[in-house]
């Protein structure tokens, strides 16, 4: 006959055996009941200064498994945004199929499509068939897209001709300049985006090579992040010869608008005297619309727009967004997702040297910041 103590020993042995069995068969249970997790639950967690930020994993609470809804039943107020023409339909289909298969069939975030021309019925029908999420199609106001009347066309034409002669990519294109100006200062003002707080920019003809089983929007929201990117590049110098001088002029006139804990060190290697041409690749960005809607960025864009550099040169939305985020957000609010950086590919057919090379300042949205 067993004594009470023996019963206790047997029960403890069974519990320990079950614990190890479930730990080996369930990753989530193993993580939650690990000694490190229990230690964090008791004494709290502090970042290890010896561990690089990009090695800090995304918390399990943001993951979704088995095609269920968003973790904890939560969703951020966010949309997937795509600027596309009717002629981009095939590329849009490729991107949407990838986006749905790898991410959005699990999370069901709405799509917003924008075009400077009305979308054709064929485009609307075909795109709407690719997702169960809500899809909206918007027309860009003419004044947000076309070259402003105050631009000196003779001067702009002379600049474009020089860029064509110098073999600058898109150097002769007015529509490309329209797009850069729109993405820099107007897309977030569109009526369809006014209800949203976050957006994920997706381009036609992109491929996602890995499943994205966690919600980057919720990470941005919960951790108060404002701008997320995957890689940084050097901007092509011939497209922005006077951009930095305009930026320095703005900073001099509006020092109170600059964040005290900014990311100037990403933009400049000499304290802001010169621009090192590093920029976040804006073809893929997940960001807070409130960053661009802020009075500081709005004043910044209006200042740049009056300079005419979008047309007299070829200022791109990537350096403009990068400089804006670096100046007006705290550097800890600018993040990169090193897992997503390995999932996205956009094939670019460019002339050698036109785009630049990958910057050594790639910032290595897994709790990683500038």
TrEMBL record:
InterPro entries: Glyco_trans_15, Nucleotide-diphossugar_trans. One of its GO terms (molecular function) is alpha-1,2-mannosyltransferase activity. Keywords: Signal, Transferase. GO terms for biological process: cell wall mannoprotein biosynthetic process; protein N-linked glycosylation. GO terms for cellular component: Golgi apparatus; membrane. It holds the Pfam family Glyco_transf_15. Residues 1-23 form the signal peptide. It comes from the Eukaryota. The keyword Signal applies. Belongs to the glycosyltransferase 15 family. PANTHER family: ALPHA-1,2 MANNOSYLTRANSFERASE KTR1. This is Glycosyltransferase family 15 protein. It comes from Psilocybe cubensis (Psychedelic mushroom).
């Amino acid at each position: 006959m067993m004594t009470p103590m023996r019963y206790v020993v047997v029960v403890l042995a069974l519990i320990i055996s079950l614990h190890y069995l479930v730990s080996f068969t369930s990753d989530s249970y193993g993580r939650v009941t690990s000694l490190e997790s229990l230690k964090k639950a008791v004494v709290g967690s502090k970042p290890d200064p010896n561990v690089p930020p990009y090695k800090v994993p995304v918390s399990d609470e943001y993951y979704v498994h088995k095609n269920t809804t968003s973790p904890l039943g939560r969703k951020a107020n966010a949309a997937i945004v795509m600027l596309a023409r009717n002629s981009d339909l095939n590329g849009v289909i490729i991107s949407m199929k990838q986006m749905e298969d790898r991410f959005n069939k699990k999370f069901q975030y709405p799509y917003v499509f924008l075009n400077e021309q009305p979308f054709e019925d064929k485009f609307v029908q075909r795109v709407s068939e690719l997702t169960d999420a809500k899809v909206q199609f918007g027309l860009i106001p003419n004044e947000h897209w076309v070259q402003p009347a105050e631009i000196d066309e003779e001067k702009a034409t002379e600049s474009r001709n020089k860029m064509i002669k110098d073999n600058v990519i898109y150097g002769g294109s007015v529509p490309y300049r329209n797009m850069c100006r729109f993405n820099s200062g107007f897309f977030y003002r569109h009526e369809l985006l006014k209800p949203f707080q976050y957006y994920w920019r997706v381009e036609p003809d992109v491929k996602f090579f890995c499943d994205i089983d966690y919600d980057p929007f919720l990470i941005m929201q919960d951790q108060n992040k404002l701008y997320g990117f995957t890689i940084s590049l050097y901007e092509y110098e011939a497209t922005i010869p006077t951009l930095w001088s305009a930026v320095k002029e703005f900073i001099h006139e509006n020092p109170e608008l600059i964040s005290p804990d900014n990311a100037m060190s990403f933009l400049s290697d000499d304290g802001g005297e010169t621009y090192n041409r590093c920029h976040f690749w804006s073809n893929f960005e997940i960001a807070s619309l409130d960053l661009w809607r802020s009075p500081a960025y709005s004043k910044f864009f209006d200042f740049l727009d009056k300079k005419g550099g979008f047309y007299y040169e070829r200022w791109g939305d990537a350096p403009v967004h990068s400089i804006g985020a670096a100046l007006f957000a705290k550097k800890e609010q600018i993040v990169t997702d090193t897992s997503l950086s390995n999932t996205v590919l956009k094939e670019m057919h460019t002339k050698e040297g036109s785009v630049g090379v990958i910057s050594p300042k790639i910032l290595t949205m897994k709790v990683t910041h500038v």
